[in-house]
Every structure is written in structure tokens, then in C-alpha cells.
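User: Could you write out the 3D structure of this protein bound to adenosine-5'-diphosphate? I've included everything you need below.
Assistant: Certainly. Input first, then the structure.
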Amino acid sequence: MTSLSTIAPAYQPGTRAARLIERNVMVYRRTWIMLVSGFFEPVFYLLAIGFGIGGLVGPILLPSGEHVSYAVFVAPGLLASSAMNGAIYDSTFNIFFKLRYAKTYDAMLSTPMAVTDVAVGEIAWALIRGTMYAVGFLVAMAFLGLIKSPLIVFAIPGAMLIGFAFAAVGMAATTWVRRWTDFDWIFVVTLPLFLFSATFYPITVYPEPLRTFVSLTPLTQGVELLRSLALGTVGPDILVHIAYLLVMGLVGLVVVDRRLARLLLK
Amino acid sequence: MATSSEPALIHARGLTKRFGAFTAVDAVDFDVAPGESFGFLGPNGAGKTSTVRMIGCVSPVTEGVLTVLGLDPAADSSRIKSRIGVVPQQDTLDMELTVRENLVIYGRYFDLSRREAGRRADELLEFVQLGERAKSQVEPLSGGMKRRLTIARSLINEPSLLLLDEPTTGLDPQARHLLWDRLYRLKQRGVTLVLTTHFMDEAEQLCDRLVVMDKAKIVAVGSPRELIEQYSTREVLELRFPADAAPTDGSIFDGVASRVEQLPDRVLLYADDGEAAAVVLHERGVRPETSLVRRSSLEDVFLRLTGRSLIE
Ligand SMILES: Nc1ncnc2c1ncn2[C@@H]1O[C@H](COP(=O)(O)OP(=O)(O)O)[C@@H](O)[C@H]1O
Ligand SMILES: [Mg+2]
């Protein structure tokens, strides 16, 4: 009995999160078509809105006094909102199914895996997928001639940060979901975020105090972050956006960890 | 059975589980020795699953002492879990993966290398006779096959302790016997089995020692034989009467048996010699529709201890 401690080494929660990612990769090997749809969605938006509507809109005047085409202006907004949508999608329906129906996590928790591994693993998985989409989107932008600033490569970690923030909060919200219809509440939140977060037009169209209010919403923070990188108009407020999204993600992660422990370790 | 030279694999004293104000497990004491096959026998709601989940480190202990493999579940759950196998009451197989992938990924959760996990997966699929279904999805498998796959999965880490929560509930007799056979082989290999059941035949078949649980408490401990000897007679005479002809006056059974149970559909007379009791009753003019002498079972023990049948 005393030799047992030598058999099983001491264990840090969170370190087996990679195993959960490995499991998801196994599943997606067969359903890779879902990955393809995640790439095309923002690209289709870009074509329809950036070029379709953009043709009617004319150039956009930046605060710097410079003019850019509407497609160049809207592309980072679409990247940010698709990072949000992808993260929400991954961290809500899928997680709910595994949590309440498939009992996937109950099975994992009978092994040395811990709740924190599940929380970190699922959020990291959402991030990995989001990163692939972001890279794909940037490649599409390059093909369409929409790259304006070399800083746009930092839009990839930027999109990851948006994905992290929304995946963590989305998964946290999902732990309270009891039936499928509850998900409508999530769309009551994300649809207006998608439409009104200065994604499609500059935030300056809003009068005060509405402008301040919108600027404090999470997707606006993400849009402003990516847009400043894409257009090369980076200022000190980028730090605020980063800190905002980082805190949002970390709070979400802590909540997920606690909620999963409550739901699964009864 | 747990001696000082062989420390208990599981040790519980005053072990309690509460859900809010409701007590599901009420201060139970038990020890499981290495290599033994230990059962929790009790009806639905007795607290068996709650107990086994605490042992499996997926349910925090509310009160009392619990050590598993000499370790504290609250402090060392991952270490404990790395050495035990779990067959939960409800199958938790991964429906998004194939039969073989279910075993391989489970092995990966235990930090096995991919190769080792694959090797063990193939071996275990043979052991539970699912080799031909390796590439199949899990969904179309029968209940018995799913259960066998769950058992294979629980063995991927070569556990020294296997927890089985109602391993055969819901299975047809053939599937049950196949499962019992596999569990018996594991026991012969020295794996410690802890199982819950509400089937007395399962408990009699598989358990060296068991506790009878009812309403959150342990009401008796012992081997199946000890329990029957202690709480029942050698034989039971079972009488069934036509609906309107059951004896209304119980005194007609006086002196024939050491104990009489009048159930809605039959009368049980506990006597060491059932045949002799039947003869005496016949002389007294008792004319049952059917009369059967059988050996006492754990069902009788349960009836004696709780006044109720195991399966309502
Ligand atoms: N998560 C829970 N919350 C509240 N009550 C529970 C929970 N799990 C079990 N119970 C209750 O505890 C009692 C014992 O349940 P359980 O341990 O599952 O019994 P058994 O496995 O013997 O059928 C039951 O009355 C059950 O309703
Ligand atoms: Mg149970």
C-alpha cells in the first residue's frame, strides 16, 4: 500500500486538458466538413457585405483622415464577429450535449482527468478551431487584396483572444442551460452584439451616451482591437481591449470550473 | 476479513452522504480487503450508487472517514482514480467514437501511450468478445454489448480495484451469464471487485462478502452463507392459495415453522425441514394450490431484515 505513491505521480489539474483535445480531434476526423463551414461563413459575409454592399457604400473616412474601401473596413469586424460566433457555437450546443446527454465528462472524471482539465480542454479546443478559421480568413483577405497593414498578423492572436473570452463565457452560460430552447437566450445576446458592435460601421454613428455604452460591450472591444491592427491605427487603447477580453475569458474559465464541479461531482 | 497484515483496500467509518437535507448514505462502516469480491445488496434508493460514487472519487464525502487504496479521495482523487476501474450504473460510452476508439481514448485519459492503449484495447475487446465489432459505432450495440464494452473500458488501466454499479441490470439472462463469467475470471486474476446489485442471485454468485443496505443504512454484513444462516432457516416452504381460499387465521401455521411471512400472493414458512412442515400442514387440512420447498436465499434475508422484498 505504501508503494502506491510511487506508482501514481502527484498531479496538477489542467495538465490532462490535451487529452480532451485529442478526443475531439478523433471525433472531427470523421466530421471535418464542420470545420469547412466554419471557414466559409465569414468569407461569405465578406464577399456579400464587403463587396456587395460595399459597392454601394463608397470609401470610409478614418479618424486619421485617410480613406479606405468598405471591404477593408468591414473585414476585421467580420473576423471579430466570426471569432465570437465560432466560439459561442463550439462552447454551447456541443458542450450542452456532452454535459447533459452523452455524459462524456462523467466518463472522463472516472479517470485521472479532473474538472479543470475538462474546462481548460474544451475552451482550448474552441480556441484551436477559431485560430484555424482566423488564419483561413486572413488568407482569403490577402487573396482579395484587403491587407492594408502588416500588423494584421497580430489579428490572429487577437481573434484567439476574442474566441477565448466568448468560449469561456459561452460555456459558463451553458452550464445553466436546462433545455434546448434556453439557447434562444444566448442568441438574444449574440445577435445584437453581431449587428450593433460597430462591426459594419464606425462606432461614431452612435450619439452619446449610446456610443459609450456600445463601446463597453465585449464584441465592440474585439472589433476595435482587430480593426486597429488591420488598419494600422494602433493606439494605447488596444491595451484596454486586450485586458477587457482577457479578464472576461479568465472569469468565464473560473466560473466554468466551479459550475462543472457542482454539476458533475455531486 | 481485513487483517492487520493486509490493510483494507477501502475503509469506511461513519461514511455519510447528504444531498441538501436528504441523507442518502447514513454513517455506514465497512472494509474491503484486497482480492475479495464485495457486494452492496439493496433495493432501489438504498444508497448504493451514492456510496460507490464516493469510493470512485466523483462525489465528495459529506461526513465520516473514507480511504481508498490507503488514500483520501478529497486530497488524492486523481491518484486513486488512476488505479481503479469504474462501471457506472448508466453507460457513459462515447457515442461519437467507435467501439475501439472508446477504449483507446480512455487509455489516453490514463496517460497510456497510443501504442499501449491500442494493444490493450485489442486484448480487452477479445476478452469481452467484441473483437468483431471494433470498428462499429457504439449506438447500434445491444445493451449487453454496451455493458461489456463498459467493462472492457474500465479495465484499460489494469486496475487493482473494480467498481461495478449494477453491472447486469436491464440485461437478458444470457447476457447476464456472459457478464458474470467475465467478472468471475477477473476475480480469479486477483482483481478486487466491489459491486452493487438488487439481484440476490447476482450477489450469491459473485460476492465473497456483502452488506445488505436499506434506506441509507447497512443492516447486515457477512458472506452469503453466513447471512442466510444467521437470518433465515435452511429451507423455505412457499405456499400459494387460490385468491379466495387463503387462510384468514394465521394461527393455523403455529408451531410448524420458526417464522411465517404472509405476502400478498403467497405464504412463506421458514423451517429447517420444509417437507416435514408441509406434511404437518396437510394433516391440519391446509390445501394450498401449489406448495414448494426451496433453500433460503438472500431474498429471504432481506425480507427478514426489512420486512420488504428486494424488488418491488
Ligand atoms: N444528486 C442527487 N440529488 C438528490 N438526491 C439524490 C441524488 N442522487 C441520489 N439521490 C437520492 O439518494 C437516494 C439514494 O440514491 P442511490 O444512491 O442512487 O440509491 P441506489 O443506487 O441504491 O438505488 C435516493 O433516494 C436518491 O433519490
Ligand atoms: Mg443505483
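Chain B has a mean pLDDT of 92.
User: Perfect, thank you.
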